Amino acid sequence: MLRSRLLEERLITMYKQGDGYFWIGGPGEEAFNVPLGLLADKGTGVDHDFLHLHYRSSGTLLALGADPVDSLRQMKNVASDPYSRGRNFAGHYSARKWNVVPVTSPIEIQYSIAIGTARAQRAGTGAKGISIVQGGDAGTAEGDFATSLVWSSRKGAELPLLLIVTNNRYGISTPYAGQHGYDQISERGKAFGMPTAVVDGNDVEASWAALTKALHYVRTEKKPYLLEAMVSRLRGHSSASGANLAKEEVDCLERFQKTLEDRKILTRSAMDQLRDEVTTELAEASKRIRGEAPPTPESIHDYVFADKNYVGGEV
Hints:
Layout: H1 2-16, H2 30-39, E1 50-52, H3 58-64, H4 68-76, H5 110-122, E2 131-136, H6 143-152, E3 161-167, E4 170-171, E5 174-175, H7 187-190, E6 196-200, H8 204-221, E7 225-230, H9 252-262, H10 268-288
Parallel strand pairs: 1-2, 2-3, 3-7, 6-7
Antiparallel strand pairs: 4-5
Helix pairs in contact: 1-4, 1-10, 2-3, 2-8, 5-6
């Protein structure tokens, strides 16, 4: 959780220093996103989980085993960026080796895309994996979210799909209140006969338990489940809104640090030391990648098609 938070802070610093064009990320969602990455069954193909994430999922990627330096490369848009070879901006991850489907900029279309992998896992292959799709609360107003509810819940053709909504009560600059005709987005799943739940996404232990229950249901029943996690938005929507700290929001990292201290699992000095070490590590890495080359003009047409110039199992 700490590494994910400090990575986001380093990305913001890089953006403000001119080492990137745009920042968008998930500081404040670590208590939910890290357990998701730890609990997912990572691998390639239908026997492992497919992850359809969004641009606030850095905690999930790090928990899967991603190198945080690669996120810095993506911010810098250098050719060594393994996610897009310098062709996309922050938070737009993809990793074929772990079934992490490319994150897209159009809001919430991952909910429609996830139907495809879930159908492949259902299609008489005896696949062990499930599909997991995650997005924000505002995007649930898009038709793609409604489409995923319909297609995943058809009687006799249900899909092994875990639908996750991380609700920070904001859509860019529009507050949740007055934009939805229900108290919780999870209520929408009830009309489609699927189990639903709401969890405090700022509580690590509650998030772990809720995800464990939801994943077990989808894996064993091969049917959809809608989980809504209430999370914080600590740095605004993106660099477009300044990425300034929202002090009125609950900080899940501070809450968990207090828990660790109260239970005498870690001392405050040990946690501060770890923070200093990771901060230094990321600062040095950001300096190092400044010397890495951007994509060449001659490579502009590379990777236009999925299997052309496919390199190292990453792009």
